[in-house]
Amino acid sequence: xxxxxxxxxxxxxxFKDNYEGMYKLLEKLEKHLAxxxxxxxxxxxxxxxxxxxxxxxxxxxxxxxxxxxxxxxxPLAGMQKKGSFGAGxxxxxxxxxxxxxxxxxNSNVGTRKGGxxxxxxxxxxxxxxxxxxxxxxxxxxxxxxGGANLPDQDKIFNYGGESFRQITRRSxxxxxxxxxxxxxxxxxxxxxxxxxxxxxxxxxxxxxFLAGPPLVKMAxxxxxxxxxxxxxxxxxxxxxxxxxxxxxxxxxxRIARELMEIVDTxxxxxVPPIEVKEPLYNADEILGVVPPNIKTPFDARELIMRIMxxxxxxxxKAEYGNTMVxxxxxxxxxxxxxxxNNGVIFxxxxxxxxxxxxxxxxxxxxxLFMHNTTGYMVGKAYEEGGIIKNxxxxxxxxxxxxxxxxxxxxxxSYGAGNYGMNGRSYHPRFLFSYPNSKVGVMGSEQxxxxxxxxxxxxxxxxxxxYNEEQAEMLKAxxxxxxxxxxxxxxxxxxxxxxxxLDPRETRNYLGIVLAVVYSQPIKGAxxxxxxxx
Length: 533
Prior knowledge:
Layout: H1 13-36, H2 42-50, H3 56-63, E1 70-72, E2 91-98, E3 101-108, H4 119-134, E4 139-145, H5 153-172, E5 177-186, H6 191-195, E6 198-202, E7 207-209, H7 213-220, H8 226-230, H9 232-239, E8 244-246, H10 249-262, H11 286-289, H12 300-304, E9 314-316, E10 324-331, E11 334-341, H13 347-362, E12 367-373, H14 380-384, H15 387-400, E13 405-414, H16 415-420, E14 430-433, E15 438-440, H17 444-462, H18 468-486, H19 488-493, H20 506-517
Parallel strand pairs: 3-4, 4-5, 5-6, 5-7, 6-8, 11-12, 12-13, 13-14, 13-15
Antiparallel strand pairs: 1-2, 2-3, 9-10, 10-11
Helix pairs in contact: 4-5, 13-15, 17-18
């Protein structure tokens, strides 16, 4: 396979400007990620230490195989939501390796708001459940939670029960869930260990009951202690809710790791060679390749060659539909097909991408969609040329493709271009964003301009003078609001992606998620819906 050759000059002013602008965005990203790693006020952490407790991330690190990678997911969920507990909520979730096997791991942050669950944490957990089931991963829950945050009950109750349903559906599908209870797991939270395949309770620490002593007293006039109602020893010796009684936190984690040794995760679809070719170009150069301003065009091949093994890329229809780059290569030894935008999507680009998706399905190769498009081309000539039917072909192919899909937003992702490139509503296995990316119906200035045209026409039709000064103020407000709500920060807060990446880590992130999708059989689609010709 031929290696791509870079045309970028690292000494050019454009490269230096890009690098500086992207680096500033990464500083902002690191600030937000540092906020997401907050594990509670100092007094709460000190109290936990005095009780001999580990923190959520310490437990997570201990359950993972030594020096193995951990791909944290949705770390900034809820960070801009009013009334939320902050970036990431009260749960740390991600994919790691335990006893040599890929697992989804969820660790409650018991020192942050008592581990209680706000709305953002609830929806984060549901998305984690989707990823777990679709990728057929076993789960390890590190449990210490006060249950639902009662002021959020109207936002949580009707959705939160889905997480318990997910546990049982995974069990039916043969996917194991192991829960280690280190502290509170009360009310609805008691169903997490109760519905798990294996439950491990820590002696003198686990408290698992549907109602605590005060509520039991009010409801039945019965007086009981925490231990009598839901202590680890009672559940291990009397109720049978607990399968293993752990002496302490480390013992509980040891038991979970032992259980993972016997859990059957099947034979991987593909195991890549130990030695793989590194890209010919330094990943650090990606910051100079990808512009912070999405209005500045760049060639997606310059990014592709910095993440592919050996910078090798077998490009498909290189001379046709050149605003869509398509081709095959490998990342960390895993074959993958890539569809990357080089601008607006024309009919030729859509037709080319449709054929490429069919070929990748025929050969059982996962697909990576890299977004940088303002959408499908508009105008009289393009409508006459069938942009609707050709765009529909691409959406048809994306919708009915059955190989795993991965999505990466590297620039703009506007309008139906987001759909044709497998955006969030098309259920990619994983979706990540760069910090410069933007997603929405259209760009902020275009949106404001369209609204201005509509308002001018409405004023003319009604015979009312158009207030230019008021219109300018409204236009500025619309642009500011649209900019905010199309930003990567807003998108990740709303769970429209699974995390914002440092572009320099793209290859490593993709390597992990490709290992996940290749851990199960891959079979492409045998048929599609009707393609309008």
